[in-house]
Design a protein that fits this description.
It is a single chain. The protein is α+β, with helices and mostly antiparallel strands. The protein is built from 18 helices and 13 strands. The strands form four sheets. A six-stranded mixed beta sheet has the order 11-6-3-4-5-12, sandwiched between helices. A three-stranded antiparallel beta sheet has the order 10-7-13. β4 and β5 form a beta hairpin. α6 runs parallel beside α14, α10 crosses α11 and α17 packs across α18. The two termini are 52 Å apart.
Length: 536
């Protein structure tokens, strides 16, 4: 009777119960089987349907209620069986055997369905927090479902934080992700945060606002006022000063960033995802770390110095080259470190970390740590993708695991300066060339028969002169004249001298911190390819 109730909850009551309600018990068993069969068949034949069911706020709530009803029905029918089988009249041995069988069956049926309802509710609440249907503060905005543009979804991903030493949020990582809506094939394009003269499409309100010629935040419809107008500052600038231009959206800064990136790349950004990098390490730890093959040493920087140059104390630690399983702390530094190298190397590493995380999604890990991962996600991610559409995006993410990922960086090694003797990509890139390269990678245009320029032409500044590159204090100067003509014989290089070790690199870092220019230039040379990385 206990086993029969496991398969057909209520069937025993149909056979042994009161005649007035026996058909109700049989009907409930049939309904549970019909609903379960329908859900199982639909999920197996169309997993997008299943993802949409469990992620849509209304549909998932209906499923939660259904699971709770099933759980309660199993609990009621099993406990009432004790009355039908006259439990009190059983022998002691039979009582023990009955309880020994009843408890695991209750856990298997009533307990598992109740736990499934709990997990689904955790997921539903998190998705509502991360991907709200309504956008805006004090007003109500409805974002329509996204439709593919030229067969692709285009999402802007920004990573940054609003630390105590910052005014507002500044995206340190800016990456456009274009995904084929059918196959999941992905193109990622990293945009350096120090890019200047960021344009806007003709229909952007920012283009009109920056076309008045006052030069405060830009001229000729571009975000162009010098070092203060790098694209990494656009998000906070718009939210502070131009929010009224975007009264019909929830996050003016994110909308302006999408418009600018659309103009830079020639593809329309449709939605955004903002990741809080300070909390990102927690998510990676919950996933069991991220596996990569690092191409070179990467420093974990020491405390930032409160000086004009923006330097750091000597590194706290180093991430070695070769196969690595990075903890959350290490992965965060691997994606953000730029000491003795350029932002472009950091862009390469960021793309590698994102690709590795996508490829290494482990269903068992997601299931066993589901609650913690979902709760961590609410602290990390913001987006304007609606919950009604997240199911199809989950399906694309799974498809993308088996697809090659194309990558482009608007800077070295993919694009370099065409100015003779200049090795760094200028902060004023050739946007026409950027759009051409993106179009070629997406198969929109045939590659040119003549080899295109590998660099970007500089854009003259207000006085007509070509602006110089503006590397950070930890970035090698673009003019080779500032570098030593030769490396001292006592200084090892990558091809000769002692094998690089953590202790040796740390000694150079300490010497550079104490003002040794040769040590600093040696580190710059040794770190010049530390952006090379592949998923492990």
């Amino acid at each position: 009777m206990l086993l029969l109730n496991t398969v057909l909850p209520g069937a025993v009551h149909y056979l042994r119960g009161p005649s007035k309600v026996r058909w109700f018990f049989l009907g409930m068993a049939a309904l549970i089987w019909a609903a379960g069969s329908y859900l199982a068949f639909s999920a197996l034949s169309n997993r997008v349907w299943m993802f949409n069911l469990v992620t849509h706020p209304v549909a998932s709530m209906a499923l939660i209620i259904g699971l709770l009803v099933v759980s309660a029905w199993y609990l009621f029918t099993f406990l009432d069986l004790l009355r039908l089988i006259r439990f009190k009249q059983l022998s002691s041995g039979m009582k023990a055997a009955t309880i020994a069988l009843l408890v695991p069956l209750l856990v298997l049926t009533s307990g598992s369905t109740a736990y499934a309802a709990y997990l689904l509710n955790v997921s539903r609440n998190a998705l509502v927090d991360i991907l709200p249907e309504q956008q805006g503060t004090g007003k109500t905005f409805t974002k329509p479902l996204l439709t593919p543009i030229d067969g692709r979804y285009n999402i802007l991903m920004m990573g940054g934080d609003a630390g105590s030493d910052r005014i507002g949020r500044r995206p340190d990582s800016i990456m456009a992700i274009s995904v084929d809506a059918t196959t999941g094939a992905t193109l990622t394009v990293s945009i350096p945060r120090n890019l200047q003269n960021a344009p806007f499409p003709d229909n952007s309100p920012m283009k009109a606002a920056l076309s008045n010629g006052d030069g405060v935040d830009g001229t000729d419809g571009a975000f162009n006022c010098g070092d203060q107008c790098i694209i990494g500052n656009l998000y906070s600038k718009v939210n502070e000063k131009y929010a009224d231009l975007y009264s019909n959206v929830g996050d003016p800064g994110a909308q302006a960033m999408m418009e600018s990136v659309s103009a830079i790349l020639g593809i329309t950004m449709q939605a955004y995802v903002i990741a809080d990098m300070d909390n990102f390490s927690q998510l990676i730890d919950l996933m069991g770390g991220v596996k990569i093959n690092a191409g070179n040493w990467v420093p974990i920087s020491g405390e930032a110095l409160d000086n004009v140059g923006g330097g750091h104390l000597p590194p706290k630690d180093w991430i070695a080259p070769g196969p690595q399983t990075l903890s959350g702390y290490q992965a965060l530094w691997y994606a953000r470190s730029r000491e003795w190298t350029t932002d472009y190397a950091r862009n390469q590493r960021q793309q590698c970390i994102v690709q590795a995380m996508i490829q290494q999604m482990n269903p068992l890990t997601l299931f066993t740590k589901f609650t913690d991962i979902v709760k961590a996600g609410t602290k990390i991610i913001e987006s304007d993708v609606t919950t009604a559409q997240i199911g199809s995006f989950i399906d694309l993410a799974l498809k993308s695991q088996s697809q090659p990922v194309k990558k482009l960086i608007l800077g070295p090694p993919d694009m370099t300066s065409n100015v003779p003797g200049q090795t760094d990509f200028p902060t004023y890139p050739d946007f026409a060339l950027s759009r051409q390269k993106v179009a070629q990678l997406l198969g929109k245009t045939a590659p040119s028969t003549t080899k295109p320029s590998t660099g970007a032409a500089t854009t003259p500044n207000s006085n007509g002169a070509a602006p110089a590159s503006t590397p950070s204090s930890n970035t090698p100067a673009s003019n080779p004249a500032t570098k030593p003509s030769s490396t001292p014989s006592t200084t090892p290089t990558k091809s000769s001298g002692p094998t690089l070790t953590k202790d040796y690199l740390q000694g150079l870092a300490v010497a550079a911190y104490n003002g040794d220019l040769n040590a600093k230039n040696t580190l710059i040379e040794l770190m010049n390819n530390n952006g090379s990385c592949t998923p492990g």
